[in-house]
Amino acid sequence: MRGYFAIGSEGLSKSMNVGTLMRTGHAFGASYFFTVDAHVKGLGHAMKADTSKSPDHLPYFAWNSVDEMQFPRGCKLVGVELTDDAIELPSFGHPLQAAYVLGPERGSLSQEMQSRCDYVVKIPTKFCLNVGVAAALVLYDRYMAHGKYADRSLTAGAPKDPLLEHVHGAPIFRSGRKVPGFDGNS
User: Which residues form the tRNA/rRNA methyltransferase SpoU type domain (predicted)?
Assistant: First the structure.
């Protein structure tokens, strides 16, 4: 998997959802987890939903406001929100360096958060999903976009052509110098 990503939420109030988001992020290989303006009293109950013990493996950042958020240089903030002008997830090109932020259980991303986002994507559903389910779908889509898989079959079943193994070439020297013992065909 290329690049890195983080997963987080704004305004969460249920500790079980924090645990579910952390476990989902951990399962898909997140680099860190974050919350913004969370109203959760400790992470004790969150660990009931997070049997992978992700706090032992992922840094957790708890910011009080959108203004406090800090991301690595080059990281694109991607909001997940069901709005008319959001990009539909199946058509979205995931940035290599991204932080995905989802809204609270009974609400939406704040206007301040949406304004801060580089992109806003939506899962094409009739109504909003549970925050944990939404996170899993977005991260699965990212995984499919940036992972190395054979092209999906146009008919039912497995792909007809397996993914070819990558072939590494010889080092490239700007001076035009040849590598002894390498004929360029390996």
Answer: 9-140
Identify the burial level of 31 via C-beta atoms within 10 angstroms of its C-beta, where 0-12 means exposed, 13-18 middle and 19 or more buried: middle
Q: What are the C-alpha distances in Å from 79 to residues 8, 48, 185?
A: 10, 27, 46
Per-residue pLDDT tens over the stretch 60-97: 899 999 999 999 999 999 999 999 999 999 999 999 99
Extract the tokens encoding 129.
């999903």
Instruction: Return the amino acid letter for 101.
Output: V
Report all structural domains of the chain as residue ranges with CATH numbers, in order of start: 4-146 (3.40.1280.10)
pLDDT digits (tens, 9 = 90+) for 36-46: 998 766 555 54
87, 119 in Cβ contact below 8 A?
Answer: yes
pLDDT reported for residue 157:
77
CA angle 151, 129, 94 (to 5 degrees): 40
pTM for this one? 0.80
With CA atoms as reference, report the closest residue to 137 among 31, 7, 3. Answer: 7
Residues 135 and 20: their CA atoms lie apart, in Å, by: 9
Q: How crowded is residue 131: how many other Cβ atoms within 10 Å of its Cβ?
A: 21
